[in-house]
């Protein structure tokens, strides 16, 4: 499958201000490269502060990167201006985590959905009909047309946000923890809707989440981030079955499984790793996971491992898999 | 026969708001046995937190405990916790029945060093004679909750610690007076999975070491599967089902429990499509008549709309409130 989006050496450093001078930088995203293929869902996982959200926003240029490029359909979006940028803004959309702050409380559902349509100068014959169709495709109906956001539950609001971005016929959508604020029974509904519309319209998703069960359910391929670095990229099923990077192994073994028998079994095998992720201001030298890694060797402290293809289409940044 | 430490009967809490009376929990009954981990699970607004707080009258205005009994079997014999005066309940709350809340950041005072805060809990309950002794004990508590370098950490302010570290301090504070019952309300929800695993391990270890009874409130079915001996599933302010962890996960009886378990994506399984529960949680000012789950239930019959189902014992220790049985 051809890539719809290629990320090359993307970096985003946030300055940490001292009293007079910049004290240092938070290396939120530090030199990562990957590609997303047309029609797939690429999952991005990691714990809080690993840089997954910053990655999602930098890719869309909602945050300007420190360095690196993002190629979308052959164009480097970091160089786009004017009409071309407007084209990109239409083709690439984002859905946010918090359904309570992503909709204007003073606009009705109709206005919420029509505003971006008007902005992009998309002609629709019958706006009402157009919005009703969109609402129906996300599981709402015409009854909801002239209501305000506060009249809806969290799950319904996420559906409105979804209808709004569908109106622009995007090709690529960043889903940033779209169900983290929702209850499990509602979450399942939204995830199924996301899968349905992907099949119908052929969307490509970047799915950002800290919930590994959800990522496993949604994504075809996935990337695992740790302290601003991509440590592993590959087909989701393969990563869940046979994680290569010790951090991925730790992460997967830490998930509590909703099955008491299996939980007991997995708990016995659980990796014991002490400590928490260190500060991204002064990340450890070499491999950033080495202070917590049970398999750390000398080289891990000194040299940063590159992302290498360990198996077909399965990449890992770890010296354990280096052939040299 | 396991010995109950808490017997909750017909516990009812209402919130008197401008919009109307929110019937947060209605006639909730269950037993908690000595030494077990009892989990209260359910989604937002099902009343699990309200239930746990009502056990020691920790309900603030506009909420009020409208009815029910909470029999606590203390060393001195059974007491109805809801009959105690504010002063008497304070003697028990924090000492014999302690709480750990979800957000460790909100549980700690930003203006005091963590060591002082742990010591204070002991001074208030007279388990130590002065603050100095309290601070010494605080050091051993930090060691107990496996905080590295406790000698220097004891002088830390909360903002100098990470989320996982703070939650360890909160757990330590909860355990200072060797409580008989520890109520943990979503103790790991604010934490990352790898840290969550560490904290759950710690809680299990401490529970074993001190023979504490643990009441765990959570919405995470994975955490429940890993921790609980027995489970009560709540929906819209009522208990839908109670059973052992095995009964609930292997043989869920209530259609809501069945739906909930199918809606969780299991990371260890390949799932083509999740079975979602249609609709949303009802508002509790005007809850549905009869069984509160009937508008979302695929098996709803006429009787479900009319009559509130009572909890019935279907197999040994497995109770369900559903007209199907």
What can be said about this structure in brief?
The complex is a heterodimer of chains A (about 325) and B (about 325). Chain A is of the alpha/beta class. Chain A has helices at about 50-60, 80-90, 110-120, 125-135, 155-165, 185-200, 210-220, 235-240, 245-255, 260-270, 300; strands at about 5-15, 20-35, 40-45, 65-70, 75, 90-95, 170-175, 205-210, 220-225, 230-235, 310, 315.
- Average pLDDT of chain A: 91
* Count of helical stretches of chain A: 11
Query: Numbering strands along the chain, what is their spatial order in the largest sheet of chain A?
Result: 6-7-8-3-9-10-12-11
- Give the CA-based shape of chain A: globular
The whole-number mean of residue pLDDT values of chain B reads 92
Overall geometry of chain B: globular
The major beta sheet of chain B can be summarized as:
8 strands, mixed
State the helicity of chain A in percent bands: 25-40%
The parts of chain A where pLDDT drops under 50 for at least 5 residues are none
Q: How does the helix and strand content of chain A classify structurally?
A: alpha/beta
Strand content of chain A: 15-25%
Query: Beta-strand percentage of chain B?
Result: 25-35%
Number of strands of chain A: 12
Question: Can you give keywords for this protein?
Answer:
heterodimer; A: 324 residues; alpha/beta; eight-stranded mixed sheet; four-stranded antiparallel sheet; 12 strands; 24% strand; globular; B: 325 residues; 12 helices
Question: What would your notes on this structure say?
Answer:
The complex is a heterodimer of chains A (324) and B (325). Chain A has helices at 52-59, 82-91, 109-119, 127-137, 154-166, 184-201, 212-218, 236-241, 246-254, 260-269, 298-302; strands spanning 3-17, 22-37, 41-45, 67-72, 75-76, 92-95, 172-176, 204-209, 221-226, 229-235, 308-311, 314-316. Chain A is of the alpha/beta class. Chain A has an 8-stranded mixed β-sheet, with helices on both faces. In chain A, helix 3 packs parallel to helix 5 and helix 4 crosses helix 5. The model of chain A has no long low-confidence stretch (mean pLDDT 91). Chain B is 32% helix and 26% strand. Chain B contains 12 helices and 12 strands. Chain B has helices at 48-54, 86-92, 104-107, 114-124, 131-144, 150-153, 163-175, 193-210, 221-227, 245-250, 255-263, 302-306; strands spanning 4-17, 20-33, 37-41, 63-74, 77-80, 97-100, 181-185, 213-218, 230-235, 238-244, 312-315, 318-320. In chain B, the strands form 2 sheets. In chain B, strands 6-7-8-3-9-10-12-11 form an 8-stranded mixed β-sheet, sandwiched between helices. A 4-stranded antiparallel β-sheet of chain B has the order 2-1-4-5, with helices on one face. In chain B, a hairpin with a 2-residue loop joins strand 11 (312-315) and strand 12.
